[in-house]
Amino acid sequence: MDAELFSTGNRQWLIEISYFITAFLFIMGLKRMSSPVTARSGIVWAGAGMLVATLFTFLFPGMGNYEWILPAIILGTAAAWISGKHVAMTDMPQMIALYNGFGGGAAAAIAAVELYRGEAMSTTMGTLAVVGGLIGSVSFSGSLVAFGKLQGLIKKSFRFGGQNIVNLLAIAATVLVGVFIITGWHHDTFHVSLFFVLALLFGVMMTLPIGGADMPVVISMYNAFTGLAVAFEGFVMQNAAMIIAGTVVGSAGTLLTQLMARAMNRSLGNVLFSGFGDTGGAAAAGGEVKGSMKPIDAADVGVMMAFSQKVIVVPGYGMAVAQAQHKVWELCQLLIERGVMVRFAIHPVAGRMPGHMNVLLAEAGVPYDLIADLDEINAEFETADVALIIGANDVVNPTARNDKSSPIYGMPILNADKAKNVIVIKRGQGTGFSGIENALFYLDNTRMLYGDGQAAAAQLIQAVKAV
Fold first, then answer.
1. Could you please report the per-residue DSSP string of 187-245?
2. CA–CA distance from 280 to each of 163, 207, 274, 349 (Å)?
């Protein structure tokens, strides 16, 4: 009976059923991730789908090399578990970039194995393998560069005259070698190796010029690349689970990339090739900002907030760096106890990855109903007594509305400048990550509370308690 149950035909049937279940779990998991309330369970659902696909893949006829496969799974799982437990929330963007790159690298490795075999492949399968290998390699090396930028290992962008032309020649050479392989004209070890070297090099060359402020869009784009690469290699391997997973990730990543680029009023081409988004690179861009920054003491801010009716908090990457989210929420709880209406305003590209601020606030215990996105909250700034800016810069810069010479002109922003009082917690008087001077800091209703975000929030807590 057992032998009949695990016959080749039945094994194939069980695999197909498991992949159908996997597809259902992936799609439901993604659906649940669309809401903060159900996002955690969505991750569990998707993880269960991956577990099902992995386990039933062992039923494939002809499976072998378990002495390599099982230790790799165990080591990979242990490394992911340990790193996931110990990596700080502030370092989550670079961790995501790194893991995303690993996914692209895995897809490229599958393509490499198939192409190095040198066996006769149909033109269709050869094309799919080459395209998947190209996209996966670019995602792998590009994500590693993104990781280096976010981690501070790469402290500046590398640009030179004619760089876009050089990059175009690099990708053209990669595609040409790929065509040689597909047609069988030069399908040998040397040309396959050259293809992957060129693809990896192009990923590095494409990402190095992009400034750190644009990394959220880049990470999202490479996430889409990884999904597409996995889907292509799924067709090569005739593996339905890979096709489904890759298609879901690729489509979701593509949509997210478009939404984020739209949130900055920029095209993806502008993000990739304009050279904008680097620290200090755009400081002189746009019109001259007139006026001066006006400092204020924490004690005065505490009194102002304690007697307010509505306070809107706008968090940014500076809050993440200072790890101030817990202190900020403690401050807000004091205000709520005094009858102050408190809300959090999140811009789509705040932080270093999509949803970065939402994750930090959730970690601090901020209720979901107090967190609103740009479209939901913007009309409320006019009725707010205080807009508290902690670590945000470009997403509250009014220059985007009225200065056509600014690189961020037309970008939808949070209308923090329309609040009665604007308090900006900032380390110093320098520009933000993109290097653009923020006109908000010079307005008559804006006051600057200088200092580390966590220390400043602690001072405000004491000031409110003293009222």
1. -SHHHHHHHHHHHHHHHHHHHTTS-GGGHHHHHHHHHHHHHHHHHHHHHHHT-HHHHHH
2. 20, 18, 15, 19
pTM exceeds 0.70 for this model = yes
C-alpha–C-alpha distance, residues 197 and 192, integer Å: 9
Is residue 353 over pLDDT 80? no
Catalytic residue among 214, 278, 394, 417: 394
Task: Give the H/E segment covering residue 386.
Answer: strand 386-390
For residue 308, give the DSSP letter.
Answer: -
Are 26 and 244 in contact by the 8 Å Cβ rule? The answer is yes
Mean pLDDT lowest among 50-64, 234-248, 280-294, 339-353: 280-294
> Residue 288 has what pLDDT?
61
What are the tens digits of pLDDT across the range 201-242? 999 999 988 876 677 788 889 999 999 999 999 999 888 888
Please tell me the distance from the alpha carbon of residue 335 to that of residue 311, in angstroms, as a whole number.
Answer: 9
- The two counts, helices (H) then strands (E), for the chain are 18, 6
Structure tokens at 271: 């993000």
**In degrees rounded to 5, what are phi and psi of residue 346?**
-115, 125
- Judge whether 444 counts as a catalytic residue: no
Distance CA 62, CA 121 (A): 20
H/E run at residue 449: strand 446-450
Kindly report the backbone phi and psi dihedral angles of residue 360, in degrees, each rounded to the nearest multiple of 5, phi listed first: -65, -45
